[in-house]
Amino acid sequence: MSFSSHSRPTNHLDQLEAQSIYILREVFARLKKLALLWSLGKDSNVMIWLARKAFFGRVPFPAMHVDTGKKFAEMYAYRDRYAKEWDLDFRVEPRPPIDAVDPTLPPAARSAARKIEGLKLALAKHGFDGLIAGIRRDEEATRAKERVFSPRGLEGEWDVRDQPPEFWDQFNASPPQGAHLRIHPILHWTEADIWAYTKREKIPIIPLYIARHGKRYRSLCDQDITHPVTSTASNIDEILAELDASKVPERAGARLTTRPKTPSSACASPVISDQWRRHEHDRLPLPRIVSDAQRHDTPAGPHRHRRPCRPRQVHPRRPPVA
Q: Is the overall model pTM greater than 0.90, yes or no?
């Protein structure tokens, strides 16, 4: 497959592509042992395409799929075909069995827990100091706080309060000893950007993204936590038209984890975000609300907290300069 020509004038997609390629080359130059997380969805497929462009046709680090064994058959067929066609150093890493995860968790939370443990095992096995992931800021609120070079703790946790500044594309690529970085080369993209770029570059897509019998998948994850949305889009142009008319976020349904049968196009990751959000809310001090009656019942009346006014100083007018 040939890449598209760069003889055309620079546009929005060219700028996104150039920024992502810069990030991929920067991390390759600064970290010793990298892997690209391939989830088989549209975002990570675009990310692999960008990595092939960044390194002249061949990705110089492994593409790793942490497999649950619960993906759609079309996703596995896509993976097996293009791992060979794109000449990837492809590795499949298993996740812990479902029985090893707390059975009281909702299905999406159990999937997220298996993903986290699978990544920990892969990191311990291969000693990666950087994992390239295809997340975007527009997917859900917590991801909007991510960095391009995002440090992870010794246990793989993400501390939103300890994120380095990234001014003028200057990235901190020095994780603590034993920790690692998550690198997000398409963090600045949107869902519409992904589809527009996929169309322009003619990147192969999984058929589940195209409507069939009035339904299509907007996001792909494990079969038991991924549900189709109502759609009539038979091609990428119609998908873009639907996105332009819709105000529903791509992962809006992911928070309904207590009712796993509720239709949703989301995967498992926002579940942990909700847990973090509730935890953070508990830690924040609540504002003190004082009613008007309480304010007027104070000894000094309603002006108790008002600063005293200073008398205005009036300066004499200066005579005109001769």
A: no
